[in-house]
User: Fold this.
Amino acid sequence: MKKNHKLTKVVKALVISALVFIILLHIIFLFLGRAWIGTNIAITILIISVIYLLRSKKKQQLLKNIKTISFSIILALFFAEIILRIFFPIYNTYSENNFGGIYISPFSNKYSMLKDKYIFRKQSTHIKTLPASYSYNLKTHDFNIVHKYNELGIRERDNIIELSANKLSILGLGDSFTEGFGSKSEDTWLRQLENILNNNEEDKEFLTINAGISGLDPFYSYKILEELNNFIKPNFIILGIGKNDITDILIRGGFERFHNKSVSFSYQPVGAFLFAFSYIFRALIYSIYDYPELFLNEKQYNDKLLKAEKDLIDVIHKYEEFCIKKDIQFILLLIPDSYEISIGDYQSELFKRIARSHDSFLKTIIVDPLSKQNRLFFSQTNDLSKLYWPVDGHLTREGNRIIAEILFSEIYDYLND
Assistant:
């Protein structure tokens, strides 16, 4: 009996070790993109478990075996999760790299976790700017900057309405690249543009108004424009867009996302919650999808991309119509990221078409920083990495300065008409 008991313990130990080893091996194959091998291993785990359970002749022994297998699997998954988090940074997202491991799901209407806690106000049921006189400390891997907002809930000087009196005002709209994520308020491209204009103009005084808000896309910004129109009457409007806006629109949809005073995105995968909390689940998703965080394969992505590009063109025309009606000059600024600067072209085919063919926007000034002429501005610096924060990816003070100088060179004649 003692020998049989010892043998049983040895078998249990071997089964536990095998389960742990097989599950870890499964994770490795998933990382290597061999999903079919991972599936076969998962089936093997199931078969071993069933055989082990069938060996139990007594109900009490069966329950013990179930507990043993359950504990083994949980333990293996725990260690696999730890290993993936420590040794496989490929699964880290932008927010986790920048904000101490906190994940922001692109599908959350409330910009859960990080954006509620550190960046945005608690999301209300309607679209608006941030709370009046609000401030927060933005600390990332690259910088630590306080963002302050005025009485209108935008990152601007107090009493901006009174300050704009008797001045040519330029309203800037867009996302974090316009708001100046990672830059002091006086270092954003809008404020630097204001300084350049006033230093080159004696008879007129310009004032820029920064209504860019991190996380927004052109559709949200249009709603912000409609709200601010009750308080601000700009002479010019600059909308800054980047390739990330296309992804945002792909997820959120166009104007159809707005329902009375609520917002709902076009789609949200069931697995988005698990993706946020489990690196094991991410490893599985990475082996299945071409765009894992979006839960899309190549064909699905391309189908949604076509609609997102059409939606973006439509909303740009919406800005045009608004500006024509209000007698405002509309300016569309394409904002490249660091990779696009390095290759000298946009990754988005839509942005390439917008930059090279202005026929679709006859009433819009399109500013393309990657045009042959404007690329000369980037040659002023010997190190292009100084234009963008290395981990965060947003513009530095120097990067904002070059964007401001490009804008000045492109629109100065129009501003003086």
Remarks:
- Residues 117 and 220 are 20 Å apart (CA to CA).
- The beta strands are 135-139, 144-148, 168-173, 206-210, 236-241, 258-259, 262-263, 329-334, 364-367.
- The radius of gyration is 27 Å.
- DSSP finds 17 helices and nine strands in the chain.
